[in-house]
Amino acid sequence: MKKIMIILLSVIVYYACNNDDHVVKPEVAFSEFTDPRDMKVYKCVTIGEQTWMAENLKYRLPLGSIDGCYTFKEGAVREYDAKVSVELFTDSMNAAMERGELSERYNDNFSVGDLLKAYVVDYQMPVSQAISMVERTCEVTCPNGVKAIKRMYNNLLPFALAELVENNLKDTEAKNGNYSSVNGFLYSYDGAVKAVPEGWRLPTDEDWKKLEENLGMSLSELDKLDVWRGGEEGRLLKAGKDGCGFDALFSGARVFGTFMYGTNFINKGSRAYFWSSSKVVENDTINHGIIRLLSMENDQIMRGTSDLTAAYSVRCIKE
Hints:
Layout: H1 2-18, E1 28-34, E2 41-47, E3 50-53, E4 69-70, H2 86-98, H3 112-122, H4 127-138, H5 143-175, H6 179-183, E5 186-187, H7 189-195, E6 200-201, H8 205-214, H9 219-222, E7 227-229, H10 233-237, E8 251-254, E9 265-268, E10 271-281, E11 287-295, E12 298-307, E13 317-318
Antiparallel strand pairs: 1-2, 2-3, 4-5, 6-13, 7-12, 8-9, 10-11, 11-12
Organism: Butyricimonas hominis
Protein name: Fibrobacter succinogenes major paralogous domain-containing protein
Domain Fibrobacter succinogenes major paralogous: 45-318
């Protein structure tokens, strides 16, 4: 009887140690980081010798999509879509006229400033159209005045672009449930590199491998590419009671191309995508980034590749 009990106990221990549902959580420590650029506070988690942000990066790059930074379903803004407002330009134009910068004479009756004011105020032309009209008419007779007008417009254009980007963000966030407040922003590869705060970095592929090894992934699995790897280490990265505090969210992505989806924003609520700083060299002109992918239905971790213009979540690692 004693021998049977020992055998049964051995079987129980064996299955407890080899059951796929058995996940051993690593020892972790928590801290906080305040980003001085926008004063956002991030929960951080230390696993092994690595300290990671335990939240997706929420820093908004100044030019939004132009910089490669998106909220979910945010349409791309083009620089030529920015329009300097008539009110702002009129104030700048009147100040320039008072300084005498637009006093060159177009003819006996009108200065270059008078002509510009007639187009903008009296005929209510769009600012860019009014400037084009003045440039064609006065470039020879009033060269300094034309230069002053173009300089004035170019000085105002960044404000118009910033306003356009900000309004685009507000409109999109109103429709997507204020996505970025919880999920952070999605960044292209270049955007991700630019968005990382001082003292942190975009994790390398080796950083991710070290994290996965600390979670229990076998060495034989680490280097596999474009396949689901490991046992259930992905479960430890996910938010929830089974996680280790990394708290990955299924924030979706802005993928390269629309394919059959009709949009390039996909998989919110079912997939988590994260950049690494590492690349795979395809040829002399094409590189792909190495990423990590988690799925709601799968507790493994995909080590994949991606076009660099796609936009994914960012988890920073401390320098």
